[in-house]
Amino acid sequence: MKAKTQKLKAKSFSIITLFPDLVAPYASSSILGRAQQKKLITVKTVNPRDFTKDKHNTADDRPYGGGPGMVLKAEPILKAVDSLGKAKGKRGIFIMSPRGKQFDDAEARKLAKSFDEIVLICGRYEGIDARVKKILKSKDISVGPYVLTGGELPALSILDAVARHIPGVLGDANSLEHTRTAAEDTYTRPEVFTYKKKKYTVPPILLSGHHAAVESWRGKTGIKKK
Ligand code: SAH
Q1: Which atom of ligand 1 is nearest to the CA of 125?
Q2: Which CATH number fits domain 181-224: 1.10.3720.10, 1.10.1270.20, 1.10.10.10, 3.10.20.600?
Q3: What are the pocket residues of ligand 1 if the criterion is a CB atom closer than 6 Å to any ligand atom?
Q4: Of 83, 95, 153, 99, whose CA–CA distance to 119 is shortest?
Q5: Is 140:94 a contact under the CB 8 Å cutoff?
Q6: CA distance 133 to 129
Q7: CATH 3.40.1280.10 holds for 12-163
Q8: Of the candidates 2, 10, 15, the residue with the CA atom closest to the CA atom of residue 39
Q9: Is the per-residue pLDDT at 151 higher than 70?
Q10: How far is residue 91's CA from residue 142's CA, in Å, rounded to a whole number?
Q11: Nearest atom (ligand 1) to Cα of 122
Q12: What is the pTM of this model?
């Protein structure tokens, strides 16, 4: 008999971005796209520019104290967040920032577990008016010790890494590494691959059919969870 499928509430992701066109195609392709179709997750983008009042839809301005570049204004971002309405469950709000706490797989698992709604705010230019963080009592998250031109790639990375921890998102539950944060070396057909006249083979153990031996080999090559 088919197992009774539990009706799970979709985890909602809202990405606040001046460039929704960068976000939407990634979120609606491949595994994330399927997760949306299966209603395991919802992904929406909100553009702060839609909440500006002047005729040029200005979402940024010069920094106080001088210096180069522009800063995203507080009000359009706060209005974009307000437009999400009252949280229907536990809502976590995060600002993408190279100065935030560095995101990792443990954090991804924690976010998947702790929140029903995840709001990811993308900065651009010199960043976001610091009062946004204060008002929203949000946390800064960094995806790594380097500086990107915007928060969209970080937000997509977080969306992707968190979604993998939501039951049902990965077709085969086993492909979510419970003990490894990165998969071992993997191979697919052909068994012998010839490239520029040189032959490249698959480790024989993977062809042996000895499940336990394969698992132990994989344990050796995978990166262990910290
Ligand atoms: N001088 C700014 C840099 C802004 S980079 C600062 O120190 O914050 C422009 C935007 O890109 C940031 O507001 C942030 O949203 C995003 N960003 C850049 N690098 C990032 C990283 N490593 N992790 C997360 N967000 C990042």
Answers
A1: 9
A2: 1.10.1270.20
A3: 96-99, 122-124, 126-128, 142-144, 146-148, 150-151, 154
A4: 95
A5: yes
A6: 8
A7: yes
A8: 10
A9: yes
A10: 19
A11: 15
A12: 0.91
